[in-house]
TrEMBL record:
<comment type="similarity">
    <text>Belongs to the sugar phosphate cyclases superfamily. Dehydroquinate synthase family.</text>
</comment>
<feature type="binding site">
    <location>
        <begin position="173"/>
        <end position="176"/>
    </location>
    <ligand>
        <name>NAD(+)</name>
    </ligand>
</feature>
<feature type="binding site">
    <location>
        <position position="267"/>
    </location>
    <ligand>
        <name>Zn(2+)</name>
    </ligand>
</feature>
<feature type="binding site">
    <location>
        <position position="251"/>
    </location>
    <ligand>
        <name>Zn(2+)</name>
    </ligand>
</feature>
<feature type="domain" description="3-dehydroquinate synthase C-terminal">
    <location>
        <begin position="185"/>
        <end position="327"/>
    </location>
</feature>
<dbReference type="InterPro" id="IPR056179">
    <property type="entry name" value="DHQS_C"/>
</dbReference>
<comment type="pathway">
    <text>Metabolic intermediate biosynthesis; chorismate biosynthesis; chorismate from D-erythrose 4-phosphate and phosphoenolpyruvate: step 2/7.</text>
</comment>
<protein>
    <recommendedName>
        <fullName>3-dehydroquinate synthase</fullName>
        <ecNumber>4.2.3.4</ecNumber>
    </recommendedName>
</protein>
<comment type="function">
    <text>Catalyzes the conversion of 3-deoxy-D-arabino-heptulosonate 7-phosphate (DAHP) to dehydroquinate (DHQ).</text>
</comment>
<keyword id="KW-0520">NAD</keyword>
<keyword id="KW-0479">Metal-binding</keyword>
<dbReference type="Pfam" id="PF01761">
    <property type="entry name" value="DHQ_synthase"/>
</dbReference>
<feature type="binding site">
    <location>
        <begin position="133"/>
        <end position="134"/>
    </location>
    <ligand>
        <name>NAD(+)</name>
    </ligand>
</feature>
<dbReference type="GO" id="GO:0003856">
    <property type="term" value="F:3-dehydroquinate synthase activity"/>
</dbReference>
<keyword id="KW-0862">Zinc</keyword>
<keyword id="KW-0057">Aromatic amino acid biosynthesis</keyword>
<dbReference type="InterPro" id="IPR050071">
    <property type="entry name" value="Dehydroquinate_synthase"/>
</dbReference>
Amino acid sequence: MTENILQVKRNDEFYYPIVFRKNFEDLSNQLKTLELQERKCCIVTDSNVAPIYLETVKKELEKVSDTIISIILPAGEENKTLAQIQNIYEHLIKAHFDRKDLLFALGGGVVGDMTGFAAATYLRGIDFIQIPTTLLAQVDSSIGGKTGVDFLQYKNMVGAFHQPRLVYMNVHTLDTLSDELFSCGMGEVLKHGLIRDLDYFEWLKENREKVLNLDEDALTEMIYKSCVIKKTVVENDPTEKGERAVLNMGHTVGHAVEKLKNFKLLHGQCVSIGTVCACYLSLKRGLITKEEYESALEALRAYRLPISVQGLNAAEILTATKSDKKMEQGKIKFVLLEKMGYAYIDKTVTDEEMKEAIEVVLEESGEEKS
Ligand SMILES: NC(=O)c1ccc[n+]([C@@H]2O[C@H](COP(=O)([O-])OP(=O)(O)OC[C@H]3O[C@@H](n4cnc5c(N)ncnc54)[C@H](O)[C@@H]3O)[C@@H](O)[C@H]2O)c1
Ligand SMILES: O=C(O)C(=O)C[C@@H](O)[C@H](O)[C@H](O)COP(=O)(O)O
Ligand SMILES: [Zn+2]
């Protein structure tokens, strides 16, 4: 049974709500409930999202604020940079934003991570609201307070933990998402099933048609379930001292591929490729069976995600993984499956094992594996 609200623990005292809605019409009421009305509002969005949703959100905010400005960032991962954060600071200073004022992230994970980072650092921290408009942002990036930017093309190299005050989901924003971008979100959704909930993973396989056809009930149920998994993990370990790193399954290789492909492959697609490596290593360690390994790959394929990559070699991917933030004293903290539906962090994966797993996802030429 899905509810239309979830409360996520922010610190020992406070929680923030994730609200699940079908339009933007409740946003101003939510702000009033949180006593966040009558503040200057800055909506940060991107060049693709602005023409579709900016005016509607602005109108809604006009019910609770006299000053609303907006910043339209160029869309795309290649713009997740410190230069764009500086751009945000400049707008805020010009409009005299103070510590009580609010930032709104209207967009996907790129806008969310950058707006959150600007909010974490402007005046040493102001409040911000997540309004995620991609599936990936709704099930993953808008929750848990990881914010930041890429630096020298290293993924999320500079950032801060800064929790939002509210996550406002309008599930209908997914109607305007391309199939490819929808599938990117499925990379993180399938990860949730694999790392923490086998029944959910099976449900995702069974409900593929409904999900891909954006059946409202199936979609709402799926987003809710993924949010519960993400909420549970981040509440247990908000600043990734331990367990939270399981949310990184597929990301060590994934981030390396994302960087080496100059962000031409999307995050969710790279996570999918990295997930194959993680599942392969779990198979080689005897933790999952061949059938289970195949079933994980089948699920990724079924949701139109890549399970291989062209134009890279194992050595360069391995080298790129060495600059991953999950390195600890020269050892990679790699996320493996202890069993289907349960992941753990393993610090014993060797370079030879890594290389073997990377070989599995390399395509020499021609078509990608399907
Ligand atoms: N903070 C976290 O916990 C966390 C978790 C997962 C991913 N991430 C980060 O999130 C980013 C990926 O997020 P993403 O996949 O949302 O990418 P994105 O933000 O680049 O959005 C993808 C594309 O979709 C467009 N778009 C957004 N909403 C739309 C809509 N409703 N209709 C039509 N187009 C729309 C955007 O303009 C963009 O071109 C990566 O930078 C990744 O590192 C962060
Ligand atoms: O919330 C988390 O924790 C995650 O790891 C979620 C990931 O899906 C996400 O891509 C995150 O941004 C990765 O964080 P990083 O610290 O490994 O860059
Ligand atoms: Zn991710």
